[in-house]
Hints:
By secondary structure, the chain is of the alpha+beta class. The protein has helices at 2-27, 129-136, and strands at 36-37, 48-65, 74-83, 91-98, 108-118, 140-155, 158-161. The longest helix is centred in the N-terminal third of the chain and has 26 residues, at 2-27.
Amino acid sequence: MRRWLWFVVPFALVIAGGAVAGWVLVRGDDGPCLPVDGSFDDLRAGTCVTLRGTAHYDSVVSQSTPDTLFAPATTWYLYGFFPVNETQDKAIRVLVRTRRPPERLVAFETMTVQGRLAIPTRALLPPDTETVLSKRTPYFFDDAVLVLVVDRITSEDGVWDEHAATGADGAPAAR
Length: 175
C-alpha cells in the first residue's frame, strides 16, 4: 500500500487542481465591477459602464447553456441595445446578455443597464447568432459589436440584479 501512495497523492492533487482551474474558467467572473457613466460613442471592451438606452425585443435571441458539474442550466437572452429612441439604425453596436426575460408584447423598452463590456467570444455569443437574427429581423452586427454582460437593469418595472436573480434551483427568480 505504501508504494502506491507516491502515485495516488500526486494524482489526486493534479485532479483537484484541474477541478479548481475548471471551476474558475467556467465561472467567468472577472471580479467586482464599478461602473462609470458611459455613452454609445465611447465604448471599450473590458470597461464597466452604466448605459441608458432602448432595448429592442424584436431582436431577441435566446441561448441555453446545459447543466454542468459547476453550473446549473441557464437561459440567456441577447438583444440589441441602442441610444434612447434611436432604433432606426439597423446595425447593433451593443448586444445585451442577461437572464432577464424580455417583456411580453413589448417591442421597445427604455432602461439603464450596468455591466461589463466584452468582446464577443464563443462562450458569450454563439457563432450563428447573427445569422439567426438576420433571418428574423432587419438587424445585423456592427463590425465593432460589444456584448454588455449585465450586472443590473433598471427600468419602469423596477430593478433586476443579475447576481440575485436565481433561486435555489438555478431558475430565474420572480421580479
